[in-house]
Design a protein that fits this description.
By secondary structure, this protein is of the alpha/beta class. The chain has helices at residues 21-34, 41-47, 52-64, 70-87, 96-105, 121-128, 152-161, 175-183, 198-203, 213-221; strands at residues 8-11, 109-113, 138-139, 168-172, 187-191, 208-210. α8 links the parallel β4 and β5 (187-191). Bound molecules: calcium ion. The site of calcium ion has 9 residues, from loops. Calcium ion binds at residues 12, 14-16, 48-49, 173-174, 177.
Length: 222
């Protein structure tokens, strides 16, 4: 259900708005492999939502017991971005167009909170979902110093859409994203659109969990 006080929805992007996670997972895994580091696609899904810098650094800490240097971060994250540019596509998530039109029609404010640093994101969003999003109501990698699971991205999201934490609902697909939203004090819907066990989303603290966008859409429109 949508909590009664809700005025705005804050959507995560990759794996929620766009069905882009399979491409990000492959790009990360292939980029690490080039540097002789094993990082499975499942692990990519587990750390999803983190910044590029933190992802590389965390893997170095886990596997090498030290921080990554700035050059190592730039090299691996740079390669990941180049691979994604080549193989990736921002395919709209199934049922997302219906869901967004429904929420917009009900008068809710719609914002985006993403760790993505992709260029010309608003154009890509507008191409897929004309008239739904605006640049003023978006938090991207350029707006934050700490990535998810820190609450900062979602706290900034609340400011951008101009509502209090108890007047917003977050839609997330990733454990770290759910943790970030909950740490910001926001009601959070977890939608499992990828390869993770749905239990991971429940354990991260989501208030409700669904197996697809369609499942949640049908529940709120019924
Ligand atoms: Ca995501």
């Amino acid at each position: 259900m949508i909590p009664e006080k809700t005025k705005a929805f804050l959507f995560d992007m990759d794996g929620v708005i766009f069905d882009s996670m399979p491409f990000h997972a492959k790009a990360w895994s292939d980029a690490f492999k080039e540097f002789g580091i094993a990082f499975s696609e499942y692990q990519v899904y587990l750390q999803e939502g983190s910044t590029g810098f933190k992802t590389v650094n965390d893997v170095f800490m886990q596997q090498k017991g030290r921080c990554a240097t700035e050059q190592e971060v730039d090299a691996i994250y740079g390669l990941k971005c180049r691979i994604f540019e080549k193989i990736g596509c921002n395919k709209p998530m199934a049922y997302m167009d219906k869901l967004l039109s429904y929420l917009k029609g009900k008068g809710y404010i719609i914002g985006i909170v993403t760790g993505s640093g992709q260029k010309s994101l608003i154009e890509k969003l507008d191409d897929a979902y004309p008239g739904i999003f605006s640049k003023e109501r978006m938090v991207t990698a350029y707006d934050v110093t700490k990535g998810k699971p820190d609450p900062e991205p979602y706290l900034k999201g609340l400011v951008k859409v101009g509502v209090n934490a108890d007047e917003a609902v977050v839609i997330e697909n990733a454990p770290l994203g759910i943790q970030a939203a909950k740490a910001a004090g926001i009601y959070t819907i977890g939608i499992n659109t990828g390869i993770l066990d749905i239990q991971c989303l429940k354990e991260s603290g989501a208030d409700e969990v669904f197996g697809s966008v369609k499942e949640w859409y049908e529940k709120i429109t019924k």
